[in-house]
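## tool: complex_structure
## caller: assistant
## args:
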Amino acid sequence: MDDIVAAFRETLLSVDGIGAEKLALQNVDPKHPFSFVERVMVPVLEEIGVGWERGTYSLAHVYMSSRICERIADTILPPADAGTRGGPKTAIAVLNDHHLLGKKIVYSALRAGGFEVLDYGQCSVEEVLAGCERDDLEVLLISVLLYPSALETARVVEGLADSGRGTRVVVGGAPFRLDPDLYKRVGADDVGYSAFDALRIMRDIEGGGRS
Amino acid sequence: MTARDAMTSLERVLTTLGHSEPDRVPFFLLNNLHGAKEMGLEPREYFRDPDLVARGQLGLREKYRDDCLYSFFYAAIEMYPWGGEVNYSPDGPPTAAEPVIHRRNIPSLEVPDVESNPDLRRVLDATESMKKGIGDEAPIIGVVMSPFSLPVMQMGFAEYLSLIYEYPEEFWSLMRVNREFCVRWANAQLKAGATAICYFDPVSSPTIIPEELYGKTGLAIGKSTLGRIEGPTATHLASGIALPIMPRLPETGTAAVGVGDSEDLRSLKASSLGRISLLGNLNGIKMVNWDHRQAEEAVVEAIDAAAAGGGFILSDNHGELPLQVPEDAMMAISEAVHEHGRYGIAPGEGKDG
Ligand code: B12
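## result:
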């Protein structure tokens, strides 16, 4: 198994989509396709994500490998999300900024990890609050690019508190990475520094870490 | 110049860029958005009028006694000549709206004209007014996006990354058009009175692309672009990491590199020593909440780590302070540099200088 993981990592880092797909098809067990995702794909993606936080891998590695894996997952997994585990009712939104890449990567990582996530796209505070209400969310993931947008998440947190809904707010994006205390200042429940933090946090919440 | 200052700001900056110690550590307070705040205007109104921007910059320098004027408006202004739009916000920088370039229309792209574009004209007019106001007392720093980083706004980040990896022909075709635009835009600013150009190139940072790819893309593009800019340049990675590419950056001919606080400043100094100057590294986001003591500590720490021997300009990690950074924090930084930044006096830095 370690050999397969190493070879798969190598194909992703060299952005060799065809090689990665070939490797996946050779090693996937048709009866349990999700086990390849869980034992090879997710750990490798996670390693690359953590490597980005530490400065050993680049964002291009993170994005291109998540794209390749998404394509492979579409090929090897049965349709209609039969492999997803569901999990808490969750949505992801980009607040204000015209910057969709961070969200896109987080979304792919969560899907690869088996979570179902609603994608709100780019929204204003009011639109996010309306979505939480409509979909009765348990978890709201917010991604931002600019500092003023990070500050705006405080208005989302307040709006949710007013509504009495216990939605948990998890934030991420460059301003939160540059100031690790910022998430507390805006009243968010948690912060993630990479897409795989999002996966870790979701697993914690699912495992009963909900406050 | 005050009685205790032995040099003008321009002399101070040129001395440090020549890797010698000036009278004190030069510092750039890149607070281009704060001119609007000083005048009680929203960024949109402020940046509409080049005279306001020039007055704003001259006023801010008088207030905080820093060592440059900054003629940067906002990155997204470069989208207008390509047919793009800009979103304005009352409490932050203007940003690019929808992408305007798609892979399929790259082959038919033409280089937009700089001098006749009314939006770029505003920057050139502001630069001219600044030059009239400042003469040779302090440098005016102009800004361009690098040909390699501009496509994030032109195309959107995801589409651009796949262009780099999957469509080399279109990628290089876009680089050629962007390079021509960048060179013209930079030279027009120099002609209008800018002293030097800050070349924003965060996509070249290993935070964004792998180091190996940099050699084939960002580095090659930097060399062929900066070589045609008719004045000194600094390269800014906008708080992306720099250490892994530090040995190669000087090959582009750039005189300085903007660095952040996610890397150790002493290591950055060691790897750049005598070859390229450092510009940085105060964290602009944290600065919003700094009190007087925290600002002073950050300044002293940076000076201790990087000022010895020159080759260092104290500044922020990004090349622009958020509008939310309060007056007190900027004033505290200024006071700290004036107090602790004197060469030969402050502890820990070049006593023999
Ligand atoms: C590359 C870059 C640029 C490029 C392209 C930017 C873009 N995307 O449009 C250029 C040169 C064009 C640029 C320009 C500007 N930039 Co810029 N730029 C950067 C840089 C270096 C990387 C940003 C980026 O796109 N990263 C890639 C994305 C995918 O990463 P990410 O969003 O952080 O997402 C990852 C994680 O954060 C996490 N994540 C994201 N969301 C979420 C959500 C959850 C729930 C979780 C758990 C995790 C998570 O997972 C993702 C993948 O691992 C950052 C500094 C930095 N070190 O990050 C500054 C930065 C984003 N820029 C900044 C600014 C201000 C600007 C400008 C407004 C400057 C100006 N005045 O014009 C313009 C705006 C451009 C525009 N779009 O109109 C500031 C924003 C903060 C602030 N001060 O307000 C930053 C943070 C720099 C700084 N240190 O201050 N920039």
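## assistant note: Chain A is about 60% helix and 15% strand. The mean pLDDT of chain A is 91. Handing back to user.
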